[in-house]
Amino acid sequence: MRRKGLILTYFIILSTSLAVAQSSDPTEIVKYSDDLLQGQSSSGTYRMTVKTPSWERRLELKVYSKNKEKMLVRILSPAKESGIGTLRIKNEMWNYLPNVEKTIKIPPSMMLQPWMGSEFANDDLVKESSIVNDYIHRLAGEVILDGETCLQVELLPKPNAAVIWGKILLSVRKQDNVPVREEYFNEAGKPIKVLYYSNVGQVSDRVVPRTWRMASQIKPGQETTIELMDDVQYNIPIDDAVFSLTNLKKIQ
């Protein structure tokens, strides 16, 4: 009887998750996409490749996150940058530079500055604003992207919301609401950058895009690609002590 009960419970959970994943409600789509990529916690190794028309560099990163409010990013390689770390706690952010043994707090005025020369800004790590709570969501229709039928959701800032984008256009696969593309526009409606998701596959307990490519729309040829390595795990226990200034200064 207990086995039947467990099977029934699993079926209910699976059915509920599938129903949410296939929702056509714009707010539910945004929330599902946000939860899918972040989880309640995550840890693992990521490869970041930064490209410009004149040079290319590659970084290997160890990343920890928890409750969408805490994040620690540590550079593992190349050797000359190994140990550099970034810590986020809610809307506060610090960088640690091991060569000079100095911790620098990032002021709000630098949130749009690139992180380690990439197309991902400090604000992309901090995520001070919430795409779920700070924007009005409107279903904008369907479009074919990379051979997939996608739903598009237009995100417009709520009145008095402290956000930096005038509009975000989120595209997700219609079959399962897995994100395919995010387009960012300034207040004048000018496209600034596009985040392309690809290489969808199983990672830990979920199916997610394993490759994220952020391409500038104002600086041709500049883009940054992040790849999830095989050790990435979601929804695992992580001690709060990981997300501390003391731990940020540790060279591991």
> Over all CA atoms, what is the radius of gyration?
19 Å
Task: Kindly name the structural category.
Answer: alpha+beta
The CATH top-level class label of the domain at 24-60 and 114-237: Mainly Beta
- Within CATH, the superfamily of the domain at 24-60 and 114-237 carries the name Lipoprotein localisation LolA/LolB/LppX
Please tell me the overall pLDDT: 89
Using DSSP, what is the number of strands?
Answer: 14
Q: What is the succession of H and E elements?
A: HHEEEEEEHEEEEEEEEH
N- to C-terminal distance: 49 Å
CATH architecture term of the domain at 24-60 and 114-237: Clam
- Note the beta-strand portion: 35-45%
Q: Sheet bearing the most strands, described?
A: 14 strands, antiparallel
CATH topology tier name of the domain at 24-60 and 114-237: outer membrane lipoprotein receptor (LolB), chain A
Model regions low in confidence, pLDDT < 50 over at least 5 residues: 1-20
Shape: globular
User: How many helical stretches?
Assistant: 4
Helix content: 10-25%
Could you characterize what this model shows?
It is a single chain. This protein has 252 residues and is of the alpha+beta class. It is built from four helices and 14 strands. It has helices spanning 2-21, 26-38, 122-126, 245-248; strands spanning 41-51, 56-66, 70-77, 85-89, 92-97, 102-105, 135-145, 148-157, 167-173, 179-185, 191-203, 206-216, 223-228, 233-234. Strands 1, 2, 3, 4, 5, 6, 7, 8, 9, 10, 11, 12, 13 and 14 form a 14-stranded antiparallel sheet that branches. The protein is globular. Residues 1-20 have low confidence and may be disordered.
